[in-house]
Amino acid sequence: MAGERAVGLVRELRGATGGNLPPFRAEGLRQALEEMRALYERNQADVSEAKSGRTDLIFLIRFRHCCLLRNQRCILAYLYDRLLRIRALRWEYGSVLPNTIQFHMSAEEVEWFSRYKKSLATYMRSVGGEEGLDLTQDIKPPKSLYIEVRCLRDYGEFEIDDGTTVLLKKNSQHFLPRWKCEQLIRQGVLEHILL
Amino acid sequence: MAAAAAGGEGPGGDSDGGSEELVLTPAQLIRSLEQAWLNEKFAPELLESKPEIVECVVEQLDHMEANLKRAKRGDLKVSIHRMEIERIRYVLSSYLRCRLVKIEKFFPHVLEKEKSRAEGEPSILSPEEFAFAKEYMANTEIYLKNVALKHMPPNLQKVALLKSVPRPNLDSFVFLRVLERQENILVEPETDEQR
Amino acid sequence: MFISDCRREFYDVIVSQRVLLLVASDVDALCACKILQALFQCDHVQYTLVPVSGWQELETAFLEHKDQFKYFVLINCGANVDLLEILQPEEDTFFFVCDSHRPINVVNVYNDTQVKLLVKQDDDLDVPTYDDIFRDEEDEEEDSENESDGLEPSEKRRRFEEDVIERTMKRRQRREWEARRREILFDYEQYEYHGTSSAMVMFDLAWIMSKDLNDMLWWAIVGLTDQWVQDKITQMKYVTDIGILQRHVSRHNHRNEDEENSLSIDCMRIAFEYDLRLALYQHWSLYESLCNTSYTSASLKLWSVQGQKRLQEFLADMGLPLRQVKQKFNSMDMSLKENLREMIEESANKFGMKDLRIQTFSIHFGFKNKFSASDIVYATVSLMENIEKEGPETTNFIKALDSLSRGNLDKLHQGLDLAKKQLRAIQQTVASCICTNLVISQGPFLYCSLMEGTPDVKLFSKPVSLCLLSKYLLKSFVCSTKNKRCKLLPLVMAAPMDVERGTVIMVGIPPETESSDKKNFFGRAFEKAADSTNSRTLHNHFDMSIIELKTEDRSKFLDALISLLS
Predict the structure, then answer these.
(1) Angstrom distances, CA of residue C300 to CA of C245, C349, C466
(2) β-strands C115-117, C94-98: how paired?
(3) Which pLDDT does position A4 carry in this prediction?
(4) Quick check: C44 and B73 CB within 8 A?
(5) What is the pTM (predicted TM-score) of this model?
(6) What number is the average pLDDT over the span C437-459?
(7) Cβ neighbours of B119 (radius 10 Å)
(8) How do residues C127-175 score in pLDDT, each as one tens digit?
(9) Whole-angstrom Cα distance, residue C398 to residue C20?
(10) What is the count of residue pairs from B and C with beta carbons less than 8 Å apart?
(11) I need a labelling partner for A66 at 20 to 30 A (CA). Which of A23, A92, A168, C502 fits?
(12) Does residue C271 sit in helix, strand or coil?
């Protein structure tokens, strides 16, 4: 059935809940585009036929045109939704994405991501004073200046301020300034302990 | 609000480039930031940009940081003021983030609105936000063109972003707080045609 | 050196610094750690917490962190060894040691700069005086040679003879001094024992700074109770410390007497109790608790048939029906529970158990949650030595640390369940050891070795569990044996530790007597025996009387120990 391929792409993406990014279906995309090309060519052929008298083909032409529009819509929806998920990744993981996620992105998506990163960085730098304001921090309202965190896995040395470092080993506990830990908490290295 | 005491010298609040020179105390400044933040959070569309407030708040924050650097270590006031700085920074970040989310979500409409803005009407985008929005739009358009559109049949290679990207739902319900007594505001009852 | 003003010389120094906390793996240390953490969070002191379970971990942790920290706080570790010798720190590193292990190493006592001891001065420490052990190197060679120039030969020879005599005298004096020094040090370091609980020391610090809370008081109580459960302190010290804590408890928890101002039932409150000495009885059935508490089990000799009969008589004497006694304590009839303590005490006296009640504290919060201090101790020990979970040991430490917070009741309940299993396992092992005569007298001490394949033997590969087992076994043995001499002997207990690596864990505990001063000489004895036989031993534990040993070396080690102590 025409349009199956494209709808399949959208369906798979909808199934990936929670902002997950499934692998990029390059093959599926290619097939959908191929289908569009085939439909268009058949339409082109039929249009010239219709022009020379076969008006009964008009409905078929219109039908194929609807299929083409549907395909276009599905493909664009698929690509655009993936872009939105990738955008969310910048805010969640930071500017360096884990390898597992990068494997699921196409080369062009990686390119889009890096341009988005740059654009966002320029904006953030322009906003707050000399150093800019990192908008990806302070996601939650601050409750206290320092928090107790526990290290969930070996991380290594972590710099806190003016050169002092802390060694983050699994199961060690630390009492550190909150804003320094935010990034690592999001990455799952540290766990915030409530007392 | 501790902000009044923290900054100390100088009311940091000159409005920038406005025709009225409004001198705000730090407390008033923070209050207007909070108000802008709440309005932005509750409104479905992007509201007027407030670059003066943002700039003044950033200046205020820098001021407070500088004061704290000079303060004696271990003083109780230091923790309280630092907490205040973190809170203000959170509100500011949240405000700007909220705006960025709306800009990215409705990017064609936002840019269109800005383009068709009449002279003298306040802008909804600060210059930096405008640059960011344009980059975002260009980035996305180029991506979609390279990955899908240019492989599509000739009559389908353009897509009207204004029609495809959803526009803000101006009919969604919002919360209002009445600041001053008003007369004769008519709230039209929902008719059957309105959703 | 000893710190006299805890607040000024310790807390004020570190409050503006970053600190590394090295915490040993025992309940007292965990409690002290919780109190200190609460203080640090109050004052925004940045710290890092690293659990250590032995000397090797301590050294490793120190090496890993020494570039990042200048101030180290050691809890329940470090006092009984020459710390600077072992760790070799830089000159600008400072160690604050809050440790209940005694005797405190003399180098730590007399170091003026880097080692600061947070120890209460009224602990009877008997530290040798400085001059008895340290002596400045004197120049032995007098500059008599210069003097002898310009003298006549006969005078020279006389001077020479005088010098020789002087030098011989000095050498003899020096030898005498050294012999005396060795003797003093031997006496001082021969016996290991424990001083005031570290948790109490920390609470004291909090109190001095007026930052003490009811929560911290509870942790101090649990720390003290841990020392009592593990038989580390004398009865007198325990009662004295209870008295001290009692004053604090009244101060924090007097509001309930006043009807108008009493606290909501959800608020935490601590109460003094003259409670039954039955382990976990409120979370178990009375019957199980009677069977699995060492005091009752040993006194009634519950491993024998007659013992079981005596238990029935005991219950009958109190008028407690078996059916009631065997169900969960909370479901027992209220009428029976009302005067339970007095009733049991009365009957217990008849059966030769005069100390069935003990002074302790309990904690309440909400309607359901009531725990006795010893309950918490047993639960935390079981969590810390939990063998069920794989993974690094520190995970168990973290879990046990969490269970001490009131918000983590699920972990506490898990600990209670594990504790019940542990107590049952201990009693069954004790019963089988007594019945099969596994405890043999080796002359100067009793010896018992658990074989591989004994049920629950894995539980006893952990130090605290093995110590508890040994103490209960010794108590029971003393009650069961008719040999008067054996009753006064200490016990050495061995259990397989790691089957793959072929190691055994061995502990030595002091004899069980009424007025025991709980001093343990096995630390030094083990060291000497290991040296003399070149056995492959690992003295990793902070308590010197617990060691690891290669199974093959066991017999020659024991032989050496026997001849050493005879």
Answers:
(1) 33, 12, 23
(2) parallel
(3) 82
(4) no
(5) 0.81
(6) 88
(7) 4
(8) 777 777 777 655 444 444 444 455 567 777 888 888 888 888 989 988 8
(9) 16
(10) 4
(11) A23
(12) strand
Encode chain B (195 residues) as per-residue pLDDT tens digits.
333 333 333 343 343 444 445 677 888 899 999 999 999 988 888 888 888 888 888 888 888 888 888 877 666 788 888 889 989 999 999 999 999 999 998 888 888 888 888 877 888 888 889 999 999 999 998 998 888 888 888 877 777 777 777 777 777 777 777 777 767 666 666 554 443
Q: Roughly what angle, to the nearest 10 degrees, separates helices C214-229 and C198-208? A: 160
Indicate the burial class of B23 (C-beta count within 10 angstroms; 0-12, 13-18, 19 or more): exposed
Contact B113, B122 (CB under 8 A): no
Residues of chain C positioned with their CB less than 8 A from the CB of B75: none
Long-range contacts of B136-139 (CB under 8 A, 24+ apart): B136/A116, B136/A119, B136/B103, B136/B104, B136/B107, B137/B107, B137/B108, B137/B111, B137/B161, B139/A112, B139/A115, B139/A116, B139/A119
Rounded Cα distance, C252 and C245, in Å: 11
Segments in C319-352 forming alpha helices (H): 322-326, 334-338, 340-350
Omega within 30 of 0 (cis) for the link into C103 = yes
Which two three-digit tokens encode residue C517? 């001063």
Q: At what angle do helices C373-384 and C214-229 cross, to 10 degrees?
A: 70
When pLDDT is averaged across residues C413-436 and rounded to a whole number, the result is 92
Q: Which long-range contacts (CB under 8 A, 24 or more apart) does A20-28 make?
A: A20/A85, A21/A82, A21/A85, A21/A86, A21/A89, A21/A101, A21/A104, A21/A105, A22/A104, A23/A103, A23/A104, A24/A82, A24/A104, A24/A105, A24/A106, A24/A109, A26/A106
- B104: β partners: none
Is C48 close to A194, i.e. CB distance below 8 A?
no
Does the beta-carbon distance from C44 to A145 stay under 8 Å?
yes
The confidence band for C62, taking pLDDT boundaries of 50, 70 and 90, is: very high
CB contact under 8 A, A112 and B143: yes
Instruction: Please determine, for the modelled complex, whether the ipTM score is greater than 0.95.
Output: no
Q: Which of A33, A79, A138 sits opposite B89 (nearest CB)?
A: A138
Helix axes B107-115, B127-147, angle to 10 degrees: 130
Other CB atoms closer than 10 Å to residue C273's CB: what's the count? 15
Alpha-carbon distance of C531 to A192, in angstroms, equals 48
A156: left (phi over 0), alpha (psi -120 to 50) or beta: left
Are C66 and C90 contacting, i.e. CB atoms less than 8 angstroms apart? yes
For residues B57 and B45, the answer to whether their CB atoms sit within 8 Å is no
Residues 6+ apart with CB under 8 A from C195: C100, C101, C102, C119, C120, C123, C125
What CA–CA distance (Å, rounded) separates C410 from C418?
Answer: 12
Q: pLDDT for B69-97, tens place per residue? A: 887 766 678 888 888 998 999 999 999 99
The list of chain A residues with pLDDT below 50 reads: none
Residue of A68, A78, A123 to mutate, interface with B, max B Cβ within 10 Å: A123
Sequence-separated (6 or more) residues with CB below 8 Å from residue C70? C17, C92, C93, C94
The stretch C74-91 carries a mean pLDDT of 90
Res. C259: pLDDT tops 70: no
Contact between chains at C64 and A169 (C-beta distance less than 8 A):
yes
Return the SS3 of A156: strand
pLDDT average, residue stretch C376-389 = 89
Kindly state whether C398 is in contact with chain A, defined as any CB-CB distance less than 8 angstroms.
yes
> Residue A172: which of C46, C49, C67 has the nearest Cβ?
C49
Counting residues of chain C whose pLDDT is more than 70, the rounded percentage is 95
DSSP 8-state code for residue A193? E
CA nearest to C202, candidates C229, C176, C220: C220
One-letter amino acid of A76:
L
